[in-house]
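Field log, afternoon session.

UNIT: design team B
ACTIVITY: writing a sequence onto a fixed backbone
BACKBONE:
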């Protein structure tokens, strides 16, 4: 991404700019993995369910993974029945089950009780699986950890190994990492599955090993290729992966404009025309996003803050070669995943316009206006 072009381009601010080249690059890496080991690729649309991204992904993937009825409907609309849709969620509603079964080729129930209640109905249309909790934690922050104590995500592996459900399902789903940059967790997880389930794995038709691995930031893919080939050879299962952030994480940029600049208790405060409400994980996880203009050796420091009245609407402190002035643009990098999907209009500030960018053009794809805000809050 040419960041100077981003800042010089004439478009509204704030803007969410999606780099088509970066998305395609990530998809090509995954397509090469599929060629090497025969794994099947699902785009996990919860990271960014924008139809333009889903259309870009379609030629490279074997389907989409979803977590709700609305996601399943959108996936079906984009795929038009041409690829598979895999569902796993803790929150299946009985009144949605019939439609989910029609839309989803694969459903992984989150618990033995879900399986007991719903598998007969869903199994008439979908391939039925279970999400398993391997009881292996690789994350220091339990807010991200699916294997945390008292986890709501999946059937504990000890419980599953003693259950008759293994004879009643066609697949397993496992997901226990976030933003992993090596395959050690995956290798250890599969080893534990084999230890506890043994020959039971050979009864399965498919194994979904989830997402959470940043394939584009892992140089050596050989451990993954070898593992998938071994699973297919030893147990005869189809192996699925469902990357989300790995596809769009580095492809999204949030462009903002400086509205004000002043000093508070000796620190320079810069108010932007965006807010953490356009990137809620900044506040949720106290995470400081990367800024293109940040220079660790810069002479000028400033706290970048959003334009809402929330005191904690703050991106963090950055350093600059030159002081920021009203009207200057800044670009937050690598914010493609879990940003727009969580964004909100707190204080009535509008959502960013959405643009697609490549080396030749920047094209506006989506604009929200007052009528969108009005529809959300006016009583029916």
């Amino acid at each position: 991404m040419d960041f100077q072009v981003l800042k010089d381009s004439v478009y509204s601010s704030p803007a969410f700019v999606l780099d088509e080249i970066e998305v395609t690059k990530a998809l090509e890496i995954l397509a090469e993995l599929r060629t090497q080991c025969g794994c099947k690729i699902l785009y996990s649309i919860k990271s960014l369910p924008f139809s333009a991204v889903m259309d870009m992904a379609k030629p490279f993937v074997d389907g989409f993974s979803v977590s709700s009825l609305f996601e399943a409907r959108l996936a079906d609309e984009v795929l038009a029945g041409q690829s598979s849709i895999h569902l796993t969620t803790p929150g299946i509603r009985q009144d949605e089950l019939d439609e989910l079964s029609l839309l989803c080729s694969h459903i992984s129930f989150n618990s033995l009780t879900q399986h007991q209640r719903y598998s007969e109905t869903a199994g008439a249309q979908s391939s039925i699986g279970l999400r398993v909790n391997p009881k292996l934690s690789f994350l220091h922050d339990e807010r991200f950890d699916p294997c945390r104590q008292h986890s709501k995500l999946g059937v504990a592996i000890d419980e599953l190994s003693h259950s008759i459900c293994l004879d009643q399902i066609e697949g397993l789903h496992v997901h226990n990492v976030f933003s992993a940059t090596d395959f050690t967790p995956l290798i250890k997880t599969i080893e534990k599955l084999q230890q506890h389930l043994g020959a039971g794995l050979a009864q399965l038709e498919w194994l979904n090993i989830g997402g959470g691995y940043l394939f584009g930031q892992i140089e050596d893919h050989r451990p993954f290729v070898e593992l998938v080939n071994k699973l297919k050879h030893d147990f005869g299962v189809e192996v699925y992966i469902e990357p989300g952030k790995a596809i769009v994480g580095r492809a999204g940029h949030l462009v903002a404009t400086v509205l004000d600049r002043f000093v508070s208790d000796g620190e320079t405060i810069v108010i932007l025309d965006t807010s953490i409400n356009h990137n809620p994980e900044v506040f949720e996880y106290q995470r400081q996003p990367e800024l293109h203009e940040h220079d660790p050796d810069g002479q000028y420091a400033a706290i970048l803050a959003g334009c809402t009245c929330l005191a904690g609407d703050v991106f963090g402190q950055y350093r600059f070669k030159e002081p920021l002035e009203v009207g200057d643009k800044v670009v937050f990098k690598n914010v493609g995943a879990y940003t727009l999907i969580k964004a909100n209009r707190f204080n009535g500030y509008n959502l960013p316009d959405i643009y697609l960018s490549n080396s030749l053009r920047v094209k506006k794809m989506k604009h929200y206006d007052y009528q969108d805000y009005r529809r959300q809050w006016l009583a029916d």
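LOG NOTE: The chain has a mean pLDDT of 95.
NEXT ACTIVITY: expression trials, pending approval
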